[in-house]
From TrEMBL:
It is a single-pass membrane protein. InterPro entries: N_methyl_site, Pilin-like, T2SS_protein_J. Keywords: Cell inner membrane, Cell membrane, Membrane, Methylation, Transmembrane, Transmembrane helix. It is found in: Cell inner membrane. This is Prepilin-type N-terminal cleavage/methylation domain-containing protein. Pfam families: N_methyl. The lineage of its organism: Bacteria, Pseudomonadati, Pseudomonadota, Betaproteobacteria, Burkholderiales. It comes from the Bacteria. The chain crosses the membrane at residues 12-36. The keyword Cell membrane applies.
Length: 223
């Protein structure tokens, strides 16, 4: 009898009590929850970082392309009576020079437009025919989809443009470049309107989730 009691006590001492098991399970549950929260925060941070990088990449691409197009803007004095730049609303249309190796200089209509929150760039085929150029310009103003558009930036909630005209001391809201004609852009109060050449273009792009727009100034016809 005494031997059996000693054997039972040894079996009891070798096992775990119910309370000990509950405590162990609770500790494991807490560790699992903490681990899940840490993993979830890492995944969320990675998603946000990836989205931020995509926005930054799209902005850099947009501004690089805009800078190139503005630098190659044609001289309006060579095309009297024809509009070579129009910055109205959320749409920018311009005529640029196209230089390619072993090819004569050609002209190309390019349009930037915000549609459904996406900034898109569309370019017409380069040409040396003024009649074709005029038709391309009209198609661009009419938003005719005669050529494929490339999406540059998504989640765009604002696309504002201002122009700078030589001889003036302030920015204009929007504007156009036509040789021999006054610019119909809205001039800020106190700034005298002059029939000069547009030399600068300021573009501010507002992205969803950002407090302030990203703004950059481009020289027109710098090349």
């Amino acid at each position: 009898m005494a031997g059996r009691n000693r054997h039972a006590r040894r079996l009891s001492a070798a096992g775990f009590t119910l309370i000990e098991l509950l405590v162990a399970i609770s500790i494991l549950a807490i560790i699992a929850v903490l681990g899940w929260r840490g993993l979830d925060s890492i995944v969320r941070a990675r998603v946000l970082l990836t989205a931020e990088m995509e926005q930054t990449r799209g902005m850099q691409l947009s501004f690089a392309q805009l800078e190139n197009d503005c630098a190659h803007l044609v001289d309006a004095t060579n095309f009297p009576g024809r509009e070579v730049l129009s910055a109205v609303g959320a749409r920018l249309v311009l005529v640029r020079n196209v230089f390619e190796e072993n090819q004569p200089t050609r002209l190309q209509v390019v349009v930037y437009r915000v549609q459904d929150g996406v900034l898109k760039r569309r370019e017409m085929l380069p040409t040396r025919e003024l009649a074709v150029l005029d038709q391309d310009w009209q198609n661009a103003l009419a938003d005719a989809e005669v050529s494929p558009a490339i999406a540059l930036q998504s989640q765009v909630t604002g696309f504002d443009m201002r122009t700078w005209k030589e001889g003036e001391n302030g920015w204009r809201n929007g504007g156009s470049e036509v040789a021999g004609k006054d610019n119909p852009a809205i001039v800020a109060p106190g700034i005298p309107s002059k029939n000069g050449k547009l030399t600068g273009l300021e573009i501010a792009i507002q992205i969803s989730g950002r407090e302030l727009p990203v703004t950059k100034v481009f020289l027109l016809g710098a090349v």
